[in-house]
Amino acid sequence: MSNVEDYPAEQTVCSAGVAVATEPDIELLYPREVPLGGPRAMRVRRALPNRDRRMVGAWCFADSYGPSDITGQAGMQVPPHPHTGLQTVTWLAEGEVWHQDSVGSRRLVRPGELPLMTAGHGIAHSEQSPPDHSASLYGAQLWVALPEESRQVAPAFEFHSALPRHESRQGSITVLAGEVDGAISPATTYSPLVGAGLAVPAGGQPTVPLEPEFEHAILALSPGLSAENVSIPVGAMLYLGRGRDEVRLSAEVAGQALVLGGQPFAEDLVMWWNFIGRSHDDIVAARSAWEREHDTDTPHRRFGPVDGYDGPALAAPTLPNARLKARGRYHPHH
């Protein structure tokens, strides 16, 4: 998914060089509503990057959307756009999304399936609700920052139609990335992290095992969810810090959530629009390449065309007048 804002708020360098002891052990991160392209755009709830907290482990971007009734509507329509230095994860609770990218991948993504795209040095992709889509669209889009030694890897796409799960009367845990209580996801990762989808019945109180060395957060995809005696509004994220070996959730009504975590990311990042780099110049180079290449037949492309998409690609927003400035991955405003 693209950050299609004309003026991306996250025009910053993210730094992990902050003493963990100065950060809250628990913190409720409220989302902001963002239009996902065009004058009649569907709207998404963006929990990461947040005003103060930029990342949870290597997870650096978290949008959730729906459930939305898209009967008779186009649904999700995100034209070709570029990425660098990250992986994208799509997680659907309802509906379908048609994924196409510049390495030739063509996949219809359904609930419970994991499409994982690694941008590396550069990739382009589009995301669309298919013409014969379901009535409802409901899910989340996540980004994972790649560490320095992996951020220039060749672009790639992998698709997992079956993922390991833990089932109980209290709910199910599907492992998207990393490991939860011995269940290991087949997804390729480049830093120590975990991602899990939770489906909780009404009245359910599932306990999720956690890695104490990781920091964790819970992203609520539906109402009525709480953890650690804190109610989590839809689209909000409850940051849980480090040092926990488990967390218990409760659900007033049947609902879904994501558990995200990992070792605190120990590198400085610049994240602007759909690019992750290490400097202002990284971003300038990526943007220049995209503006030079998209909707043209320019040879030796960094990103490549998304064959099969009928329509123009997204143009990059204008860079700010000043160089992108450094800010911490946790940056309190008080």
Structural account:
With 334 residues, the protein is mainly beta. The chain is built from 1 helix and 28 strands. The strands form 6 sheets. A 7-stranded antiparallel β-sheet has the order 2-23-20-25-18-15-14, with no helix packed on it. Strands 3-4-5-12-7-10-13 form a 7-stranded antiparallel β-sheet, with no helix packed on it. Strands 27-26-1-28 form a 4-stranded mixed β-sheet, with helices on one face. Strand 14 and strand 15 (171-177) form a beta hairpin. The longest helix has 14 residues, at 280-293. Residues 17-21 have low confidence and may be disordered.
Keywords:
metal-binding; Jelly Rolls; metal ion binding; Pirin_N_dom; Pirin; 334 residues; single chain; 4% helix; seven-stranded antiparallel beta sheet; mainly beta; RmlC_Cupin_sf
What is the CATH class designation of the domain at 12-165? Mainly Beta
In terms of structural class, how would the helical and strand content be classed? mainly beta
The number of helical runs is: 1
| Cα shape | globular
Distance between the termini: 32 Å
Predict the CATH topology of the domain at 12-165. Answer: Jelly Rolls
For the sheet with most strands, the description reads:
7 strands, antiparallel
Rg, Cα atoms, Å: 19 Å
- The average pLDDT is 91
Strand order of the largest sheet: 2-23-20-25-18-15-14
Do you know the CATH architecture of the domain at 12-165? Sandwich
State the helical fraction.
Answer: under 10%
* Percent range for β-strand residues: 35-45%
Number of strands: 28
- H-E string: EEEEEEEEEEEEEEEEEEEEEEEEEEEHE
| Name of the CATH homologous superfamily of the domain at 12-165 | Jelly Rolls
Given as residue ranges, the uncertain stretches (5+ residues, pLDDT < 50) are 17-21
